[in-house]
Every structure is written in structure tokens, then in C-alpha cells.
Amino acid sequence: MSFPSRILSRHVGGNTTYAREIAKGLELRGVEVSQMGSSQRAAITALMETWQGLTVPAKPGFVLHYSADTGPLLPTRAPSVVTVHGVASRWITTARSARQEKIWRTRVQRAIHSTDAVITVSRSSADDVSEVFGIDPALITTIPHGIDTEYFAQRRVLSERLQHLRSVPYVLYLGNIEPRKNLIELVRAFSLPPLKDLGVKLVIAGKPAWNAAETMAAIESAGIEHLGFVDDDERVALMQHAALFAFPSLYEGFGFPVLEALASGTAVICSDRGSLKEVAGPSLVFEDTDAESIARGIAGAFSNSTATRHSEDAGLAWARRFSWDASVEAHTAVYEKVLQR
Prior knowledge:
By secondary structure, the chain is of the alpha/beta class.
């Protein structure tokens, strides 16, 4: 097996969590995992991944898995698979610029036509991939991600730099900072009457991903606490100690942070966009994604202890429905199928 080093060797969010967990599960099953080379420049990486696909010979049991939407521009010699995580631009225009979207769609289309199988991660993503790229739904394999529920359920203490958060209730957003996450509206919600008088602060954790300048400017101008990148222990501790986890995303292919917060025993309120209708389970739901709706939703969560307690109590059992073992087994079945080509 071989996965892209651009995903495995540096943490770029959910795509890295996914690739690392599948690779780890394969290694536990005795499968040797290698990495495809990459560059700091996306165009050179695309050429490198294409070249490797063209030159790596087919050999027993070996599959190339392009695990983050894009991949080879030409058909591979060895059996190959691409995972397309979703198509936000089917529903929203804020994910990328027009130029970025054109490049992305071209690369995804080429990866789909250059590999032997397509995987996606939710039913809604499968619908989007089928519609946008013109693929027969029967040719798309939907495999939900898993979650290490015991890891998120194990109690953590806040690190030294986070000790100040023990003294005040806070609402947490944790994830990449990009337009699709709708953080400008979340920040604005905390300036509106339903929230600003509650004495609850907003804490944002995560690093800027792409097209993040406007969002970062909004966070800074509003004086919102931005923690930047947090390590794994801090991430779990932040979720466990939050009064509420808020995730007003405009689109999700899967939605790792929602499941992670639920597994941590924290009440969650989120949008119902994309895959979140499938993944969010006992989470509370924003009525819409504008600042006013977000403010009403968060204020309502703090005034409705019955609803938030249900989200807290049912979260771990819900998250346990998503298993990495089951995901790895389903991936293995796809690999075995393409090896028979």
C-alpha cells in the first residue's frame, strides 16, 4: 500500500486523521505501508503523484491509495483508489475562489478517471460526487470514518497555558479556519443580545487553512480568543471542559470534530449541512447558519438543560457506532476488488 506523504507526514486536518488511521489499521493487519513523494508546491506534487502512478509497476497485493480528493492525472499502472471526501461547491460558493475551484474539480475529475475505484465517506458526499462528476452511484463505495471513542472519553486536564479557561464557561469551536466553517457568523453571533449578556466566551482552536485572512481578521477585531494549533491532549481537554461545542459549518463531507466532541461527553450544537445530518446524532441543531440563528441556538442551548444533557449523555454511545476497525475492513474489501482488475 502507498498513501500520499503530503497527507501522512503533516497534519492537515481530517484528511490526515483518516489516512493515518487506515494506514495504521492496515499495518496491524500485516500490510506494508509506504508513502508517495510530494513537494511544497501543489503543481509539482500532482506531477510527482502522476509519475509514480505511471512508473510503479503492478505487483501482488500493492495498491496506490490517493486519500485526499486529488491524485494522478493519467491512469496508473498499479491498481489504485481515490477517496473524494465531498463537493462543498455543489451547495456553497465560499469554499474556494472560482480559479481554485476550477483547478480542484479538474484534478478530482482526472483522479477519478485515472484510478480503479472511488471511495467517499458519507451518503451525502456520495450523492454530491455522483452529481458533480457524473459517476454512476453504483460505482462509488461509501465508507464512514471511525473514531477512537475511548481516547476521547478518557478524562484530561487542561494544560498550563489553558488553565485560565477553568474559571469561565466557554463555547468551543475546534477545526481548520477556512470560509466553509462559517466562523465569521459565529464570531458575529457573540456580539448579539442573546449571547453577549450571558457571560459566556467563545474560544476558537485551529490553524488557518486556506482563504482564511478575512476570518482571522474578524476573530482578531472582535477580541475572540484564538488558541491556534492545539496538540491531541489539549484538543480532548478543551472539548471535555467546554460548556458547549459549536460547529456552524456550511458543508461537511463527514465532520470529525462533531463526533469527537460527542465522544468527549460535551453537548454539541451544529448545522445540518452536508453529512452532519448523518453524523451529528444527538447534537442540537442551528435553525440556520446566519449569526442571528447561531446566537439564538447557543443561547437556547444554555437555557435548555434537558436538551444539552441529552446530547452529553447520548454522545458517547452514538460515536461508538463509527468504528475504525469496520472502516479498515471495508477499505480492504475495495483494495481486494481492484487487485482483481
